[in-house]
Every structure is written in structure tokens, then in C-alpha cells.
Specification:
The chain has 377 residues and is an all-alpha fold. It has two domains: 146 residues; 210 residues, MetI-like fold (Orthogonal Bundle), CATH 1.10.3720.10. The chain is built from 17 helices and no strands. α1 packs antiparallel against α6, α3 runs antiparallel to α5 and α5 packs antiparallel against α6. The longest helix is centred in the middle third of the chain and has 35 residues. The chain is flat. The two termini are 31 Å apart.
């Protein structure tokens, strides 16, 4: 006997409630929202259909297409209903429909994850589809909750308002991004490079480890809001002071990860290199550094996010009249919260792309390593 799936059951119940609630919504806005009743009925049938599926692999992925399309249609109709006059005065039928879309998307994501356990193609489709469905659902919920409840834009703007402001402010945001990028790039290269070289030096001269690690730990614990004004006084208002803050933030994570990676080789491998009469440079290049690559890339990925955060925060304490941190600080004072969120979106996109680029390089460089094979299994 099959075990009851609570998510599927919840999706079915929510779809039934949304179908009943569509009459309530249509009664208030009959001309604009009468097609919603049919869409809700379609969502009900498809949510019930996907809840009954038990197949695995690509077949189950195909079973998710129709419920996903239904959720998209209903979600688009709900957003359109907000523009037709429901802003700040959504009825109970509207919220029942929102819950139905949410639970249907939840059920689709759950089914995709289950299907991804069978076959490489299924895993690839799931790796792409799950983040897209999950992210779209979050944006949909953000949009309808903010607009449906009438949240003021100075508290939290809707995603549509943020992207509209982003599209209309591309030149300004581009100049700010380039200014911040100077500090991020310079500080990232210097900080990560210095952390890597010092870790190799510590590995070669063991007594330095006892002295440098506590100092590095102390530096990493320094509050950025206290360090940034000092760096501005030392290096000026341009990107050099932001690069100095980024160096401080990225040096220690890179140092610790590289040091742990160099110590990851076992005694048997090191003894084997000794039997070959390998000196320290040969052992470092042919054994210890290759074994440390996953740790090194882990440090690079951690520092990729810290670098952007450090540069933006540093711009709060002194910068020319452009830069992402300056833009956030200035627009908050003007109560232009949509512009603040647009800047945050740009920073988040860049940080994600930067992190993804490092991850892609890691896959190409460490494909032979046991840790990569375990993740791919």
C-alpha cells in the first residue's frame, strides 16, 4: 500500500479551495477575472494528476510539465488581477489561489528531486529545473504578498517595481558597478594570492604556523565597520581603500583553506615521494598542491562573496560620487528603496556569476580528484 504524500494531499486540497474561491474573486471583478475559474479548475485536475504519479526518472519529469504550466498560467492571472484592481484589497479566493500555486510548485519540485535520482540526464534536468521553479515561486509569492496586502514601497517594493527601476537605471548602475569592481578585483587577487603564498611558506617553515595563524585569526576578527574608515584615511577615497578592505577580508580564509589542503596528504603518499628521492619543490608540485586543490578552490569561492561584501561596505565610509555602496547609502537617505533593491540585485547577480565561474573552473581542474567523483556519483 502506497504511503500518503502530505504535499500532494495539500496541493489537491488547496486546488479545490482555489476553485471554490475563484467564484468569490470573479464576483468582485467579473469582467477581468472570469477566466480564472477555468484556470483554477485546470490547476485542480493537474495537481491531482501529479499527486497520483509514482513513476521515476524521465517519465516523472514529463509528468511535471503540465502541472508546471498550469501553475504558471494561474500565477500570471493572479499577477494580472493585481493590476486590475486588487492591489491592497485581495479577497479570500485570491489567497486560496496563491496557496494552490505555491503547493503545486512545491509538489513539482519534490517530484523533480525524486526523478533526479535516476540517470545522468534526469539529474541534469533536475539541477536546472529545481532552482528555476523554486526561484520563480519565491518571486511570485513576494509579488502577490506585497501587492495583495498593500505593503508600502518604502518598506518592501514588489519585484516588478525593482526590475522596472533596474531597467531604467542601467547607465547609473553600470558606472557604480565598474567602480566597485575595481576594488573587488584588486583586493581579491592580492588577498587570495597573499593567503596562498603565506600558506605555502608556513608549510615550508613549520614554526611560522604557530605565529602566523593566531595573527591571521586576529585580523579576520577585526570589524569591517572599524577597519574601513581607517583604510579610507590611509589609501584615499578611490578604489584603493576598498581593495585594502577586501584584502583584509580574503587573506585569512584563503590562508586557512590552503594550509588545510597542504596537510591533507597522507603519510603513505609522503613516504612514497621520499622513496623516489623527491625534494620539497617536487613533492609540493606533484603531490601536495594537487591534493590541496579542492581546499584552495573552496577558499576562492568563500572569498568571492566576502570580497564583494567588503568592497560595498567600505564604500559607505568614503568614496567618489559613484559605487554600489555609495548608491545604496545615498538612495536610502532619499527613500528610493526600489533603487536600493536594484543595486542589491546587481550585486547578487555578480556575486552568483563570480561564484559560479570559480565552480566551473574547479570542475575542469579537479575532475580527477576523489572529492569530485563523490559529488558526481
Amino acid at each position: 500500500m502506497r504511503q500518503l504524500d502530505p504535499i500532494a494531499l495539500g496541493a489537491d486540497i488547496a486546488a479545490v479551495v482555489s476553485l471554490l474561491g475563484s467564484a468569490s474573486v470573479g464576483a468582485v471583478f467579473a469582467d477581468e477575472l472570469r477566466p480564472m475559474a477555468g484556470l483554477f479548475g485546470l490547476a485542480l485536475l493537474l495537481a491531482t494528476d501529479v499527486s497520483r504519479r509514482s513513476r521515476q526518472g524521465p517519465s516523472q519529469i514529463r509528468d511535471c510539465i503540465l502541472p508546471l504550466i498550469a501553475a504558471l498560467l494561474v500565477g500570471a492571472t493572479l499577477v494580472g488581477a493585481l493590476g486590475a484592481g486588487l492591489d491592497g484589497k485581495a479577497t479570500w479566493g485570491f489567497w486560496a489561489a496563491v496557496i494552490a500555486v505555491w503547493l503545486t510548485a512545491w509538489r513539482v519540485v519534490t517530484a523533480l528531486i525524486a526523478a533526479g535520482r535516476e540517470g545522468r540526464l534526469a539529474r541534469t534536468l533536475v539541477n536546472i529545473g529545481v532552482p528555476l521553479v523554486f526561484g520563480a515561486t519565491l518571486l511570485f509569492l513576494w509579488e502577490v504578498i506585497v501587492r495583495g496586502t498593500g505593503v508600502p514601497s518604502v518598506i518592501l517594493p514588489a519585484p516588478s517595481a525593482i526590475f522596472a527601476r533596474l531597467a531604467s537605471s542601467v547607465p547609473t548602475l553600470a558606472v557604480d558597478f565598474v567602480q566597485t569592481l575595481h576594488g573587488v578585483a584588486a583586493g581579491y587577487v592580492i588577498g587570495c594570492g597573499a593567503g596562498f603564498l603565506v600558506a605555502v611558506l608556513m608549510d615550508r617553515v613549520p614554526f611560522l604556523q604557530r605565529g602566523l595563524l593566531p595573527i591571521g585569526n586576529l585580523v579576520s576578527a577585526l570589524p569591517i565597520v572599524g577597519v574601513a574608515p581607517i583604510m579610507v584615511m590611509w589609501f584615499g577615497f578611490d578604489w584603493q581603500s576598498k581593495a585594502a578592505v577586501v584584502v583584509i577580508m580574503t587573506f585569512f580564509p584563503m590562508l586557512v583553506n590552503t594550509n588545510a589542503g597542504l596537510a591533507a596528504t597522507g603519510a603513505m603518499e609522503r613516504d612514497l615521494m621520499k622513496t623516489y628521492a623527491a625534494n620539497y619543490p617536487a613533492t609540493l608540485l606533484k603531490l601536495r598542491l594537487p591534493a590541496a586543490l579542492p581546499f584552495v578552490f573552496n577558499g576562492l569561492k568563500i572569498c568571492s562573496t566576502l570580497a564583494l561584501i567588503g568592497a560595498i561596505v567600505a564604500e559607505f565610509f568614503g568614496t567618489p560620487i559613484y559605487g554600489m555602496g555609495f548608491r545604496i547609502n545615498a538612495e536610502v537617505g532619499r527613500m528610493n528603496i526600489d533603487m536600493v533593491w536594484a543595486t542589491i540585485v546587481v550585486a547578487a547577480l555578480f556575486g552568483s556569476l563570480f561564484y559560479g565561474l570559480i565552480g566551473l573552473i574547479e570542475r575542469q581542474v579537479t575532475f580527477w580528484h576523489a572529492s569530485y567523483r563523490q559529488r558526481s556519483a
